[in-house]
Amino acid sequence: MPKRTPTRKGSGRRRVSSAKKKPAKKMLSPVGAIRQSLAAVRDSARANLGRQADDVWGLVLVVVSLLIVLAFFDLAGPVGNGFDKTSRFLFGIWRYAVPAVLSAIGVALIVGKPTDGARRIVIGGVTTFIGTLALFHLLTGAVSLRPNIELVQKTGGAVGALVAFPLRRILGVWGAFVVLAATVGTGVLIMTRTSVRELGLGFVDMWREARRMARSAFIEGNRVDARPVVLDTAAAKPRGKHERAKKPKPSPKPTAPAHPVDKTPVPVPVVDLTKSGYQLPPLSLLDDGTGGEVNRRSLEETARQLEDTLLQHGVDATLTKIVPGPTVTRYEIELAPGVKVNRVSNLSHDLAYALATPDVRLLVPIPGKSAIGVEVPNAKRRLVSLGDILSSAEAAMPAGPLTVGLGMDISGQPKLLNLSELPHVLIAGATGAGKSSCINAIVTSLLMRTHPDDVRLIMVDPKRVELGQYNGVPHLLTRVITNPKKANEALKWAVAEMDRRYDLLADAKVRDIEGYREKWEAGNLDRDGFDRFPYVVVVIDELNDLMMVAGREVEESIVRIAQMARAVGIHLVIATQRPSVDVITGVIKANVPSRLAFSVASQTDSRVILDGAGAEKLVGMGDMLVVTATDPRPQRIQGAFVRESEVHSVVDWVKKQREAQYQDKEVLEVAAAVTAARAAEEEDDEDAELIREAMELIVRSQLGSTSMLQRKLRIGFARAGRVMDSLERMGVVGPSLGSKARDVLMTEEELEEVLVTQTTSV
C-alpha cells in the first residue's frame, strides 16, 4: 500500500504552536469606558448620517439653546428649573451667555464646511467661553468658591472661580489677566482659523485705513483755502466724485524762439496756460476701482490644497510665496532636489480639478527665479480702473508723451506702456475679452496726459460704435473713419507723411523726432522750411474688415509704417478679434513685435498671436498677456477699465479746451496724389503708342473687350489686361463685368479732342 505524503510541510503540532496568540483585552477605567462609548456613538452617527451629521448636531445645539432660554423664564418644566440652578452655580451671571454660545456653535456647524470644521469650532468656542468667564470673574474680584458660594453665583460661577482664583494666587492680578486674555484670543483664532501673523496684518491695515481717512478729511477741510487759481472757469469745473491730492502734471515745454530771452525764472505751468488756454483734464474725472480685498485665510487654504495635490501625485514641493493679484493669485513652489520640472507641467488639469477652478496656468519656471508659478483665478476679482493707474506714483514719474496706462500686473503694481518704445502694438483676442476696453484706456490716457499740439490721432472704427464717442476732440487729425476704403487712404497718407518727415530729418541732420524737437526748441531750425510735427498714433479697431476690402494695399502700408515710422513719431495700435493667419499675416507679425493677447478659444489662436501657448488659459474681462520688443517673455496683466461715463467726461473737458481742427481734405488729397502717382508709374510701364491704339480701337468699335485687344494688337492676355486697366483709370472704359465686355464711356468726339491734345503737346 503506497504511503500518503502530506501536501503541506511540517506537522500539525508545529502549526498549532506557531499560531499567534490573541492579546488580552485591557481593563478600562469608568471614565475611559464612557469616552469610548461616546466615541463609538459619534462614529456610528457620522457613519449613518454621512454629510448630515454636522447638521444634526447643529440643530441639537440650537434646540438646547432655545430650551435654556425658556428655562430662564420658568417655561421649560422641572428639567429647565434644574438646569437653571445648575447653570447659576457653574457659570454665575455668565449663564445667560450659554445659549448664545451653543446657538453660535450650532449655526456654525450648519452653515460651515462639514469636513474638519466641527471639532475646531467646538474647541475654539469652549475655550473662548471659559476664558471670558474666568476673565470676568477675575475683574469682579476673583473670590474663592468655598466660603462665598452665594457671591460666586453672582459673578463668574464655580467654573470661573476654579480658573481665576488659583491664577490670581499664583501669578497675581495682572499675570492672570494676561494669561486669560491670551486664552480668549487663542479660542478666537481657533474658531476663525486665523494666524497671529494675519491678525497683525489686519491691525496694520486698519491703522493705515484710519490714517488715510484722517488725511482725506484733513485735505477736504482745507480744500477751500488751498484751491488753485483756474484761468478758464467754465472748463475747470470738477466732474468727479472727489479730487485727489496729486502733483500737477508737467505742461509741454514752450517753443524756444530764435532771439535771446530773459533768463528770469518764471512759473512754467502758469505761462503755458496763459498762452494756450489749454488745461489737461483732472484726475477727478476718473473713478477708483472697487473690490479686491485679499482673504488670506482662503489663500492659505488653497495653498494647502495645492501642496496636498502635488504630494498625492508624487511631487515633493514646498510653497515659498503667495502673490495675490487683481485677477489671479500666483503660488510659487520650489521642487525638492531630484524632482523633474516636467512632472509639474503635466499636472495643470489635475490641479484645476483639485482646486475647483476653471483653469490653471503654470510658469515653468518663473523667469529669474528657481521656482515654479501656479496661477489660480481669484474667486472675487478686483476692478482695476484707469483712475487707479494714472493716479499712482509710477504715472507721476516723468515719462514720454506717449506713456499710457495699461493695467496692473500679477503683484498689484500699476503697469504703464510707452508707445514710442513698443513702437507698434497688435491687440488680439476673442469677442468680449477686453480689446475695446483696452483701446479706450489707451486713448483716454492720451487725452488725459497729452497736449493736442504734441499728439494727434487717426482712428479707424469699421464697427461704427466703439470710437465714435471721440469725435470732436482736438487731438483728432480726421474724423473717426468708418469706411474701410477711406481707412486705406488714411494709411497711405501716413506713409506719405512718414516720407516727408524723413526728408525733414535728413535736412536737419538728426536721427529721430527727439533730436529734431530739441533742435527746433533751441531755435536752430528755420521756421519757414521746417515745422514742429506732432506724434501721430493710428488706432485701428478691427483689422479684419480692412484686410477684406483692400488686403494687399493695407498690408503694404502697415508694413512700411511698422518698418520705418518709429523714428518720425508715427505709431500703430492695431486690434482684431480674428487671430488667424489670413488677417495677422507673417509679414505683419514680423514687423509688429509688441502684442497684447487677450483670452482666445484655442491654443492655435494663441500661437498666431504670441508664437506660443498661454492665451487660451486667460479668464477674460481684461486679463491679458503682454509681449513687448524690450521684454519678449509674456507678462500677465489685468487691463484697466474705463467706464463710458468717464470717457464722456474726459471728452467733454477737452472739447471745452479747444475745438477740433480736422484735416480730412489734406489727408484725402495726399492719398489721392499717392494713388495717382502709382497709377502714373503703372501707365509709364506700358507703351504710350500701344495705349493710344487700344483707345482708338475700343472707342471707334464701342466694344471694351480684352480678347479683341489680343487679336487686333497681337499681344498676350496679361499685357492686354494691363492696358485695359490703364484705360479704366483714364475713364475710357468702365469696370470689369466678368466675362462680358466692358462699357465704353468715351465718345468719338471726346476721342478726337484727346488725340488733338496729345498731338499738340507733342
Low-confidence stretches: 7-23, 223-275
Give the structural class.
Answer: alpha/beta
Morphology call? elongated
Share of helix among residues?
40-55%
Précis, in short:
Helices cover about 50% and strands about 10% of the residues. The chain is α/β, with parallel strands linked by helices.
Structure description:
With 762 residues, the chain is an alpha/beta fold. Helix content is 50%, strand content 10%. It contains 27 helices and 13 strands. α19 links the parallel β9 (535-540) and β10 (570-576). α24 packs across α26 (717-729). The longest helix has 36 residues, at 157-192. The protein is elongated. It starts with 11 loop residues before the first helix and ends with a helix. Residues 7-23 and 223-275 have low confidence and may be disordered.
Write the layout of secondary structure elements.
Layout: H1 12-18, H2 30-49, H3 53-72, H4 77-91, H5 98-111, H6 117-139, H7 149-153, H8 157-192, H9 196-221, H10 268-276, H11 296-312, E1 317-324, E2 328-335, H12 342-345, H13 348-355, E3 361-363, E4 372-377, H14 386-390, H15 393-396, E5 403-409, E6 414-418, E7 425-428, H16 435-449, E8 455-460, H17 484-508, H18 513-521, E9 535-540, H19 543-564, E10 570-576, H20 586-591, E11 594-597, H21 603-610, E12 623-627, E13 635-639, H22 644-657, H23 664-685, H24 688-701, H25 706-713, H26 717-729, H27 748-761
Parallel strand pairs: 7-10, 7-11, 8-9, 9-10
Antiparallel strand pairs: 1-2, 2-4, 3-4, 5-6, 5-13, 11-12, 12-13
Features:
762 residues, alpha/beta, nine-stranded mixed β-sheet, 27 helices
